[in-house]
Design goal:
Blueprint: E1 11-17, E2 23-29, E3 34-41, E4 46-51, E5 56-59, E6 65-68, E7 78-84, E8 92-99, E9 101-106, E10 112-116, E11 119-123
Antiparallel strand pairs: 1-2, 2-3, 3-4, 5-6, 6-7, 7-8, 9-10, 10-11
Length: 127
């Protein structure tokens, strides 16, 4: 067994595995007025520094990042799903009015899967 230890000076919120096997964390520093960043472990490179609504995050093998609203997990709340395409700087809304969004995952085919209430929804994007 080997143990890696990384020290962050900001608050670590979530741990995310990407489709290509990399590990990321979301961090934030409200005192500095910064929203969440998506940071690679162990090299600490920043994939994006403007991660909206970072409670649900998924990353596909092409480097597209998906993020859903922080209130998404509450019953009765309709959520918006955002996507930042690889090589782009801005997140854009790609789905809205998603009810009771509980989870995001990327499949081996790079399709995005949502758990919405009691349903699993598959979303595919053109490369």
């Amino acid at each position: 067994m080997s143990l890696l230890h990384f020290h962050f000076t900001t608050s670590i919120n979530y741990l995310i595995g990407s489709a290509d096997g990399r590990i990321y964390v979301t961090d934030s520093c409200p005192a500095a007025g910064r929203v969440s960043r998506l940071v690679s472990v162990p090299d600490l490179s920043v994939l994006t520094d403007q991660l909206p609504n970072s409670s649900l995050v998924a990353i596909d093998s092409r480097g597209n990042v998906y993020s859903a609203s922080a209130d998404a997990r509450r019953d009765g709340v309709k959520s918006t799903l955002y996507r930042k395409a690889a090589g782009q700087t801005q997140f854009v809304p790609v789905a809205s009015n998603v009810r009771a969004l509980r989870a995001l995952a990327v499949g081996p085919d790079d399709a995005l899967y949502l758990k919405s209430g009691h349903a699993i929804v598959k979303i595919t994007f053109n490369p």
